[in-house]
Amino acid sequence: MPQKVLVVDDEQSISTLISYNLEQAGFQVEQAMDGKTAVDKIKTREYDVIVLDLMLPQLDGLEVCRQVREEKIKVPILMVTAKDEEFDKVLGLELGADDYLTKPFSPRELIARVKAILRRIDYEGISLHNESRKKEKIVFGDLTIYPESYEAYIHGHPIELTPKQFELLLYLTNNEGRVIRRDQLLNAVWHYEFVGDTRIVDVHISHLREKIEPDTKKPIYIKTVRGLGYKFERPRPVS
Predict the structure, then answer these.
(1) Residues spanned by the domain of 48
(2) Looking at 159-237, which runs of residues are DSSP E strands?
(3) Which of 46, 67, 69, 85 is the S-S candidate for 96 at Cβ 3.0 to 4.6 Å?
(4) Does residue 117 sit in the same domain as residue 36?
(5) Both 26 and 107 in a single domain?
(6) Dihedral sign computed on CA atoms, order 209, 213, 219, 223
(7) Which H or E element spans position 6?
(8) What is the domain count for the chain?
């Protein structure tokens, strides 16, 4: 069954072009021309990825992203913007966007980004909406991670993570004890480079710490290695 993509753009010509190229690549595509319609569709239907323009009537892309994440809907969001400002990127990521694409872009780049997102969240053909996923777990102190179901728990309570936040957490834990530079994290987790935009990593690290660390000012899991990057450590037992 083809994977479903919702294209949200108020410019009909751009929406039609994006939809055509996605359909040619084998995706099933629906369209929304404004933010409110997009939110209504996302709340009532299941999609595998959302291609979301930043500038929209009624609700802009950032507000759409915020409302979707407030509803605990974990569908990946690829935000498209004509702007190339760090403020927009960071704010979008803080609100739950998973990736960014700046206009103008080629249809080939769009398809590559969508497929990269789906590869990350559709591990071994397992859909976000499939609840019969394996329950192999990784335990670090009070933190428990289920890699194949994209679930994490702290003190037994579920942690709300976007797919991108989960990928970053999983990469760090898979490299326990190693110092990972910001540019390495960009390449490993985002699969392409944001030239000079390493704050994207810092934003995600900050959010992960808020969700898993007992004290974000004295992290026990994700340590900052000044001048280099980050390191994930197994917390030491209290003696």
Answers:
(1) 4-125
(2) 179-181, 222-225, 229-232
(3) 69
(4) yes
(5) yes
(6) negative
(7) strand 4-8
(8) 2
* Residue ending a domain, choose from 93, 125, 157: 125
What confidence score (pLDDT) does residue 220 get?
94
pLDDT tens digits for range 147-189: 877 889 998 899 988 888 888 999 999 999 999 999 888 888 8
Question: CATH number, domain at 41?
Answer: 3.40.50.2300
Q: Please answer whether residues 151 and 144 qualify as being in contact, where contact means their C-beta atoms are separated by less than 8 angstroms.
A: no
pLDDT in tens, 102-134: 888 888 889 988 988 887 765 434 444 444 444
Pairing outcome for strands 138-140 and 143-146? antiparallel
Does residue 149 lie in a domain region? yes
- Average pLDDT of the residues in 54-65: 92
CATH code at position 178 = 1.10.10.10
Contacts 24+ apart (CB under 8 A), 110-115: 110/18, 110/21, 110/22, 110/51, 111/21, 111/22, 111/25, 113/78, 114/5, 114/22, 114/25, 114/27, 114/49, 114/51, 114/78, 115/25
CB 196: neighbour CB atoms within 10 A? 8
